[in-house]
Amino acid sequence: MSRYTADQRYIVAAVYVAAMLMNTLDSTIVNVALATLGREFDVPPVTTEAVVVGYLVSLAVFIPASGWLGDRFGTKRVFLSALAVFVIASALCGLAQSLEQLVAFRVLQGAGGGMLTPVGMAMLFRTFPPRERIAVSRILIFATIIGPASGPIVGGLLIEHLSWRWAFYVNVPVGVIAFLIGLFFLHEHREPDPGGFDLPGFALGGIGLATAMFALSEGPGRGWDDLAIRASGMVGIVTLVVFVFHELRISDPMVDLRLLGNHLFRSTQLVSFFGAAAFVGILFLIPLFLQTLRGFSPLNAGLTTFPEAIGVVTSTQIVARLYPRVGPRRLMMFGLVVVAVSAVLIAEIGL
C-alpha cells in the first residue's frame, strides 16, 4: 500500500473521530446543563428540553440530505462546511442571552451535526477496504464511548467551576483543530452522477418532524387541549403521512422507505428505536431529577450518571465475545430486558 493511501486513512480517521467525539460529548454535557439553564433563564426545568429537541429535530432533517450533498458537492467540502457550522453554532449557543436564542442556535448546530456523521462515514467506507473496516471500527467506537462517558463529568466540572456557556464553548477548540487538519490534508471526492435532489421529500420531512416534535415536547407543559399543540400535532401527522406516500412513489427518494420491506431490517429498526428511546430517555431524566429534586450540583449529577458508561464499555466487550456463539436475537432480548428492569427500578426511587 502506498504512503499516500496510508496517510489519507489516518487523516480521515482523525477528523471522523473528532467529529463523533464532539457530537456525543455535546449531547451528554447538555443533559447535565438543563437544570442550570432552567435557573439561568428563569423557566421550568421541563421547558429546557426544547434545547435537546430542537437539536435532534434538526439532526433528523439534515441527516438524509447529507448523502446527496456529499455526492454532489464533494465529501471534503460538505464535511468541512458542516464542521464549520457546528463549531460556529456551538460558540453562538455559548453567547445566547435567552432560551429562545439558545434553541435557535441549537437548531443550527443540529444542521451541522446532521451532516457530519453520514458524510464522515462515507469517507471512511471509501478510504478503508472491507477487510479493514472491522479492525478500524474497534478503534473508532471509542469516540462514541469516550463522549458519553466523559460528558457528564466534563459538563459538571465546566458548569460548576466556570459557566453553563462552557458546555458549548468546549466544542470550539476540538472543531477548529479538526477543521484545519481536514482543510490541509483531506482529499476531495465527488460522485459523477449524484442524481436529483428530492426537495419535496426534504421539505415534507422537515415540516412534519418539526411540528410533530413541537407538539410532543410542548404538550406536557401547555396542556394537550391547547389549540397550538393540537394544530401542530395534526399538521405534523398529516405531513409525515404525505411524506411517506411521496417517498414511496418517486424513483429517487431522499429516504428509501422500501428498505423497510425487508423483514430483518424492519425488525432491527423497530427494536433499536424502542431500545434507544428507553435508554436515552433515562439519561435525559436522571440529571434533571438529581439536580432539581435532590439538590445535586452539576458535577455530582455527572458523577452519578457516569457509571452508565462503565456498563456500556463492559457490555460491548462481553457482547463482542459472545456474538459468534449466541447470535444477535438473544443478546438483544437480554439487553432490552435489562434496560426495562433498570427503568422500573429507577422509577421506584424516592426522594
Which stretches of 5+ consecutive residues score pLDDT under 50?
1-6
Number of strands: 0
How many strands, which pairing sense, and closed or not: the largest β-sheet? Answer: none
First CA to last CA: what distance?
Answer: 61 Å
Rg estimate, integer Å: 21 Å
Q: How many helices does DSSP assign?
A: 13
Which shape, going by the Cα principal axes?
A: globular
What is the structural class?
Answer: mainly alpha
- The helix/strand order is HHHHHHHHHHHHH
- Share in helix: over 70%
Strand composition percent: under 5%
**What's the rounded overall pLDDT mean?**
79
Question: What structural keywords apply?
Answer:
mainly alpha; 13 helices; globular; disordered N terminus
Question: Would you mind describing this structure in some detail?
Answer:
The protein is mainly alpha-helical and 351 residues long. 83% of the residues lie in helices and 0% in strands. The protein has 13 helices and no strands. Helix 1 (3-40) packs antiparallel against helix 4 and helix 2 (49-73) runs antiparallel to helix 3 (75-95). The longest helix has 38 residues, at 3-40. The protein is globular. It starts with a helix and ends with a helix. Residues 1-6 have low confidence and may be disordered.
Write the layout of secondary structure elements.
Blueprint: H1 3-40, H2 49-73, H3 75-95, H4 99-127, H5 130-161, H6 166-169, H7 171-185, H8 199-222, H9 227-249, H10 263-293, H11 298-305, H12 307-326, H13 328-347
Helix pairs in contact: 1-4, 1-5, 1-7, 1-10, 1-11, 2-3, 2-4, 2-8, 3-4, 3-7, 5-11, 5-12, 8-9, 10-11, 10-13, 12-13
